[in-house]
Amino acid sequence: MDKGLRDELWGIARQALAAVAPDECIRRHVSLEGEKLLVNGSAFQLPRKGRLLVVGFGKASARMAAALEGILGGRVDCGLVVTAEGYKVPTDRVEVVEAGHPVPDSRGLAAAKRIVKLVSQAEEGDLVVVLISGGGSALLTLPAEGLSLQDLMHTNKLLLESGAKIQEMNAVRKHLSCLKGGGLLRLAHPAQVVSLILSDVPGDPLDSIASGPTVPDPTTFRDAARVLRRYGIWEEVPEGVRARIEAGLRGEVPETLKPHDPVFARGHNVIVGSGRVATEAALEAGTRLGFRGLILTTTLEGEAREVGKFFSALARELVRFGRPVAPPALLVAAGETTVTVRGKGKGGRNQELVLSAALGIEGLPGVALLSLGTDGRDGPTDAAGGLVDGGTVARMRAAGVEPEAALAENDSYHALRAAGDLLITGPTGTNVADLVLLGVKEGG
Amino acid sequence: MDKGLRDELWGIARQALAAVAPDECIRRHVSLEGEKLLVNGSAFQLPRKGRLLVVGFGKASARMAAALEGILGGRVDCGLVVTAEGYKVPTDRVEVVEAGHPVPDSRGLAAAKRIVKLVSQAEEGDLVVVLISGGGSALLTLPAEGLSLQDLMHTNKLLLESGAKIQEMNAVRKHLSCLKGGGLLRLAHPAQVVSLILSDVPGDPLDSIASGPTVPDPTTFRDAARVLRRYGIWEEVPEGVRARIEAGLRGEVPETLKPHDPVFARGHNVIVGSGRVATEAALEAGTRLGFRGLILTTTLEGEAREVGKFFSALARELVRFGRPVAPPALLVAAGETTVTVRGKGKGGRNQELVLSAALGIEGLPGVALLSLGTDGRDGPTDAAGGLVDGGTVARMRAAGVEPEAALAENDSYHALRAAGDLLITGPTGTNVADLVLLGVKEGG
Question: Where are the domains of chain A?
């Protein structure tokens, strides 16, 4: 086991995690200067007579609220953020409620109604700060008029099973909800709205993060209907869902907020943290340790085991020919892979990625690969991901685990545990894209 | 359609193909200096009293023989090479025969027997030049004593369906054959043997190219038995196969040639061309055109559509952030992907790779991706691969083709044809790994 290199990669990953910690992200982008709130270079007048409201949703929203209070102090009038179980932290004026995630529940529904009430009362001269982070879509679920939470959940289940793409699912979801697709911004009008966004979606498309409550929605009721028909679930969704979409097609219920809407003049969206920030922090940390670093991509996607093979092909080239950069080399990527579950094992996408790669780097000296869910949770396990090297496969075999069989069973967790290659961080409090680090010390 | 960039990528690919053309490869590594044959810096005395024999097998063997004759002229005494249908070229002293590929046939069997006879007669003082290229394993099939061609073919079919890895299949194949796994070198002893190898196996492992007829075999009869048992086909293989392996386990038939065997002192193996050479030529050609180039890997592997996604993630990063190198950028890879066939369409691994990538780069400006089977044949099609850009998906839709549906049906050929994105070269006469080129002109 190349402990030195492994330790270095883990140190680099920790620095990347620190760079996307919610408080760090808020502090980096937000400051107070006299009576002005500065956000990434733009200045917003603090309310003189009006109120400063804070609302938020997502796994990091409580931490973001606490950091914001640290900057704005007593200037925050009131607020409410919804976060997932276990993600609550102490705050001063902003109330924090916990709700169901990833399956929405009645607590989230009640909180969403209170947020609607709060922002609906906002007036010209008020400032609404919206704290958005990953998981927000499930945590901030408020069905459109005439629909129930069950209607949304059943539709969502059908969409997930249909093979529809995430953009297609979002087109449907936004047209069944009060707050998604710019709905929150519309309710807050005419107050000034500043959204601080911690992105967990690779590439940071604003309209996809937490279903874009404060950004325009390019999709229409026609798109929603087309998606349900294309995947053959139009007849299967609840009657109320069909009725709403049909009403939308007849122009009887309003469309989601469109890009040309003047309401957007009152909204300002800023990405304060993302997988991109994590990769850049990793590159910087690696460079300080003497690695030659390259960021490969911040929109990594694909089947986890296949992505693992690609990384092992990169590792072999680095070891054998010192390409694409001469070692000590660090290749960095962020994104989100997927796992097509075929077996009955336990694992997550990051663990499966590194298990697959371990087979491709078996026996290679001076190589380590780390893959990590930045929220500290990879699949339904207590691990955040895994960290493998050229000796991983041998350690697994010595412990009586057949790595190929484990991979076939989607049992990455037990295989990595046997090799001492699980990464366990506990909840990190943040949630951006997954981070992948390939380090090669010698070769070429 | 970014015709300029597409033309440039295609020009780069053509130069890479030229660099791995069999005659070019032979000329680059072999020369005659007085009475010495120089191969990559090593000198071999031409026979004074003895004979210079040439044998070979593989898709490129006839062209390699012709190029060698061009260098050695009348010094070649005689020879015989086996190639696939349509790959014959005129030669002077070396006879060329065509045989079945990828399914071995009686012509290949007859040729293998003649080659055995030829090299078995070689004596001390003779020089045997062996020309090895991809496809050689099927073209040079000679069952071990007591086995029939049908026995081998049936065993091979079972192995292919079993999920065994290529190294595992080769362990079995080598123990059922006369010539594989160092067998040819043993027959030629005590003559001096020089093997010139055009590698179609990513990473160029000598013992895998054409099943390593002139290199040691690290595997044993025990390994062969273990593989058949592990994949549950021990009871299904022909009785003669089981009997031979059992005899081998009892030490009653000789093992394949092992690394410590003194016979190896008389053998010299040189890779004259490979995917690695193609990538290096592509990098050079790209650099001349002003691209900043990186070779990512020469051992690319994995499911073609997933590899395509990885390349589209690389393309997005290049366009958006100018990483990992500032455009104009050229990323180069070589290897061999796989296609798990689920649909009923027509295509090949290179075509499926670029079709998948086309979906991930839809609408992006200044991007093109090329993937090419260097033998000019990708799957059971008349295309060598495909060349896509940001407009490919729109062109497909305009032609009435749904690219997602085509991908789901493994119908990359028709989808690419509709977009004008097939690459058709005809047989190139060479056969190294597949070549992938990603070009990005603007961005960052």
Answer: 3-11+276-440, 22-142+177-219+256-273
pLDDT at A1: 57
The CATH number given to A3-11+276-440 is 3.40.1480.10
Average pLDDT over residues A183-212: 91
Which of A203, A303, A314 lies closest to B306 in CB terms?
A: A303
Residue pair B36/B52 in contact (Cβ under 8 Å)? The answer is: no
B323 to A294: CB separation less than 8 angstroms, yes or no: yes
User: Helix %, strand %, coil % for chain A, to 5?
Assistant: 40, 20, 40
What is the layout of strands, in order, in the sheet containing A30-33?
A30-33, A36-39, A42-45
For residue B83, give the amino acid letter: T
Residues B155 and B241 sit within 8 Å (Cβ to Cβ): yes
User: Does A313 contact B335 at a Cβ distance shorter than 8 Å?
Assistant: yes
Distance from first CA to last CA of chain B, Å, rounded?
20
pLDDT value of position B207? 86
Tokens of A7: 């330790």
Provide mean pLDDT across the span A165-171. 87
Residue A75 has pLDDT above 80, yes or no: yes
B203 at A interface, C-beta within 8 A = yes
Is the CB of residue A313 less than 8 Å away from at least one CB of chain B? Answer: yes
Residue-averaged pLDDT of chain A:
94
| pLDDT above 70 coverage of chain B, percent | 99
Distance from CA of A335 to the nearest CA of B (A): 9
By the CB < 8 Å criterion, does B259 face chain A?
Answer: no
* pLDDT-wise least confident of A62-71, B131-140, B432-441: B131-140
Amino acid B213 reads: P
Total beta-carbon pairs less than 8 A apart between chain A and chain B: 84
Nearest beta carbon to residue B313 from set A300, A303, A360: A300
Contact A313 B300 (CB under 8 A): yes
d(CA A437, nearest CA chain B) in Å: 14
Segment B74-93 shows an average pLDDT of 93
Residues in chain B within 8 Å Cβ distance of A302: 306, 309-310, 313
- According to CATH, the superfamily of the domain at A22-142+177-219+256-273 is Glycerate kinase, MOFRL-like N-terminal domain (3.40.50.10180)
Neighbours of B115 (CB within 10 A): 26
Chain A residues whose beta carbon lies within 8 Å of the beta carbon of residue B287: none
Say what the pTM is. 0.90
pLDDT value for A209: 85
Q: Are B297 and A309 in contact (CB < 8 Å)? A: no
H helices of B255-348, in order, are 275-288, 304-321
Which whole-number Å values give the CA distances from A435 to A299, A341, A391, A438, in the listed order?
11, 21, 22, 10
B309–A contact, CB cutoff 8 A: yes
**Can you give the pLDDT at residue A403?**
97
pLDDT tens per residue across span B363-413: 999 999 999 999 999 999 999 999 999 999 999 999 999 999 999 999 999
Are the C-beta atoms of residues A82 and A112 closer than 8 Å to each other?
yes
Q: Which of B439, B336, B431 is nearest to B387 (CA)?
A: B439
Helix axes B61-72, B22-29, angle to 10 degrees: 40
**Element at B334 (helix H, strand E):** strand B329-335
SS3 content of chain B, % helix, strand, coil (to 5): 40, 20, 40
Closest Cα in chain B, distance from residue A8 (Å): 22
Which residues of A are less than 8 Å from B326 in CB distance?
none
Mutate to test the interface with A, among B303, B310, B314 (most CBs of A within 10 A): B310
Each residue's pLDDT tens digit, A385-412? 999 999 999 999 999 999 999 999 999 9
Could you give phi then psi for residue B174, rounded to 5 degrees?
-65, -30
> Would you give the DSSP letter of residue A113?
H
Query: What is the structure's pLDDT at B310?
Result: 98
**And the tokens for B335?**
């290897």
